[in-house]
Amino acid sequence: MGTLFGDAMGLPFEGMSSGRVKRMMKSPMEFQLLLGHGMVSDDTEHAAIVCSALIESWQDPGYFRARLARRLCWWFWRLPPGVGFATARALIKASVGVPVDKSGVYSAGNGPAMRSPMLGVVYAKDSALMKTYVRYSTQITHTDPRAYLGALAVALAASWSSQNCQMSFEQFIRDLTDLSQGEDEQAWEELLVLLKSIECSLKENESLEEFLARAQITDGISGYIYHTVPAVLFLWQKFREQPELAIRQIILAGGDTDTSAAILGAILGASPKADFPPMKICRQVVDWPVSVESLNKTSEQLSQVIEKDTAASVPWLFGPLVVLRNMIMLMIVIGHGLRRLLPPYK
After folding, report:
1. What does pTM read for this prediction?
2. Buried (b) or exposed (e) across 115-150, using 16+ Cβ within 10 A?
3. Cβ atoms within 10 Å, residue 36
4. Nearest Cα to 262, choosing from 41, 53, 30, 51?
């Protein structure tokens, strides 16, 4: 539900500069996509797909990868607006018979990080399985080792949040270092530099803008996973007691606002003690087939699968209706694109 909240809040501002977001974003926070209501993008859809694949393949990582790939292909060919280029190429390859362990393309986009929070929560107490599931989820679409390490960092953050872990960020770095043993050294060294920047910024109580400058992340938070994940981790640590402020801050930074806010919302929403997200606001998301009701139903089924320790079936939705929804969504997105040609709100 935290994914849904962040995704729907950030979606109207995707691709905007920080300055323009500041001029157009209303206060207090409300959905601005559709007359005070929200819709979701691929971020929330991928989270729901991961849940469905877990339900169908419980405790079978290989089958999970196969089911996740099949459901992602089903999702892709129903023409969702805004799908990432790397994800699109990978799913086309998987659709024409390329094995799912070879379908990924060399990219470090945000796709794997969108799918990893739930894996971190479900396997919070089994780091080996968490790594396996995150790796399998990542390699369907992305092969750049930075994509995997970024997704693994998000999974670990979600697992910490789900256990209400209050240890220092220094300990988080140590835990992630242990998880990353044996991975690509250059990719890990790049990430470690960013993690150390987060640690320094937290100690000096810097703002997000100051942290982004320290980490040399300019022109908004892009779709590059080593831009998004450090910003998400910084705000998770700085505002874990103020989740709505954290979401607002990451949207105000501009760039890939729906994905960065969705990933941050997932981590914050994993906490059992956080009064987040506000359900009264979440119910203003008017979407289908992914909605508040469908996510509640899927999460309840996943809980039952975990409790019974046995897989279950998940129904498939009628394709043409999903295509129609995606066409409507595309029209709304185009409408927002035209709105951006006009002066910002005062």
Report:
1. 0.96
2. bbbbbbbbbbeebeebbbbbbbbbbbbbbbbbbbbb
3. 11
4. 41
What are the residues whose beta carbons fall under 8 Å from the beta carbon of 147, sequence distance 6 or more?
107, 108, 109, 111, 112, 113, 138, 225
Q: What CATH superfamily is the domain 2-339?
A: ADP-ribosylation/Crystallin J1 (1.10.4080.10)
345 pLDDT tier (thresholds 50, 70, 90):
low
| Domain ranges within the chain, ordered by starting residue | 2-339
pLDDT tens readout for residues 301-331: 999 999 999 999 998 877 789 999 999 999 9
CA-to-CA separations, 283 to 118, 247, 278, in angstroms, rounded: 21, 17, 9
Whether residue 243 has a cis bond before it, omega within 30° of 0:
no
pLDDT of 76-105, one tens digit each? 999 999 898 999 999 999 999 999 999 999
